[in-house]
Design goal:
The structure is a single chain. The protein is mainly α. The chain folds into two domains: about 190 residues, no CATH class; about 150 residues. It is about 60% helix and about 5% strand. Strands 1-2 form a two-stranded antiparallel sheet. A hairpin with a 5-residue loop joins β1 and β2. α4 packs across α9. It is flat.
């Protein structure tokens, strides 16, 4: 008789810490008689900790990048990869901010590289880990090149925007890796729509909201890099008292608000549909609540920025809240699938 590997258990040998055990499976039946196969998903706690740390460091990197942009510290180090031609640069404020960003980027890059090497060594047959990890590594390379190009070309708006877009895509791919490491690879034939032979409408809505949230991030970044931040004055929700304002920059700013309205409506729809679903899956439901709360906070911060005269700290909080909403939507996209393995330990034994 052979005991199954428990989810989250620690293998006896260090060399086995990164292995996936698919030799054991348990079969359960739902109320409607549908067979539900769940394989034992065993990854080392070290790998899980690594994926979580990588997400946290990448989130911190995006936040510090926002500080660089909002404080106009991007040229605090006018050359690249060195700073003022030195490994240890002069100690003025703009230089320290930009140099700290580069140091954090280096640490984050090493974490992404370590994750990629482990996945390619031990999980290359698992596409739910291999694909997002490889994509994340490619995005990291692009991000580094864009970062250097941004400095050397003296902060052109298009490259600054591409730099943020790549960073946000990177963190989304890393969130997927982290979610799969903790929960196991999802089942792609979603049961909700499968009963009718059609696609899962909830999953489609979540993915559409994820794409719309990405568009909202980019439009907000373009408002900043194009110099359209103050184009609507202190008016909110209208721009200069109009829904369709005059002028290029005012139009850019108002377009960002319209996209935000659309994303807000989609998040409300996701929240409503999540709480109506038959599955008692509290993680998915509460994630939608958290995303909705963060988005509401982001809206209020955005309005307060205008009313208080564009204070730097609130502009930074606006970016952080937007990124957290993006992270939440990426996590929700994974949660919208059924997990292959239960998050708790498997019960029972399997005869050999």
């Amino acid at each position: 008789m052979k005991l199954p590997v428990l989810a989250g258990s620690r293998p006896a040998h260090a060399a086995e810490a990164w292995t996936l055990d698919t030799s054991v499976s348990s079969t359960t039946f739902s109320d409607d008689g549908t067979e539900d196969h769940r394989r034992a998903w065993s990854v080392g706690t070290g790998f899980r900790a690594l994926t979580l740390a990588t997400v946290i460091f990448t989130l911190a990197l995006v936040t510090l990048g926002g500080v660089v942009r909002l404080t106009d510290s991007g040229l605090g180090c006018p050359d690249w990869p060195l700073c003022h031609g030195k490994i240890i640069p002069p100690a003025d404020a703009a230089t320290l901010i930009e140099y700290s960003h580069r140091l954090l980027a280096s640490v984050t890059g090493l974490l992404v590289l370590a994750t990629t090497l482990i996945v390619w060594r031990s999980y290359r047959k698992q596409p739910w880990l291999l694909v997002p990890t490889t994509l994340g590594f490619i995005l990291l390379i692009v991000q580094v090149l864009l970062g250097g190009f941004t400095v050397l070309k003296e902060l052109p708006a298009s490259i600054v925007l591409a730099h943020l877009a790549t960073a946000e895509a990177l963190i989304a791919s890393l969130v997927v890796v982290c979610m799969v490491a903790f929960r196991g690879p999802p089942i792609t034939d979603s049961r909700e729509g499968g009963d009718r032979g059609g696609p899962d409408r909830f999953l489609i809505l979540v993915l559409a909201t994820l794409l719309a949230g990405y568009a909202l991030l980019l439009s907000g970044s373009y408002v900043t890099v194009s110099g359209a931040t103050v184009s609507c004055g202190q008016g909110w929700p209208l721009c200069q008292g109009q829904f369709i304002p005059e002028g290029y920059y005012a139009t850019i700013h108002m377009a960002h608000r319209v996209v935000g309205l659309l994303v807000g409506a989609m998040i409300v729809a996701v929240l409503a549909m999540a709480w109506r679903r038959k599955e008692d899956f509290s993680a998915m439901r509460w994630t939608t609540v958290i995303v909705g709360g963060l988005f509401l906070a982001q809206i209020m911060i955005g309005a307060t920025i205008l009313w208080m005269g564009f204070p730097l700290i609130l502009r930074l909080l606006h970016l952080v809240a937007a990124t957290l909403v993006w992270v939440g939507l990426a996590a929700l996209a994974v949660l919208s699938y059924k997990p292959t393995a239960p998050t708790s330990a498997l019960k029972g034994v399997s005869g050999a």
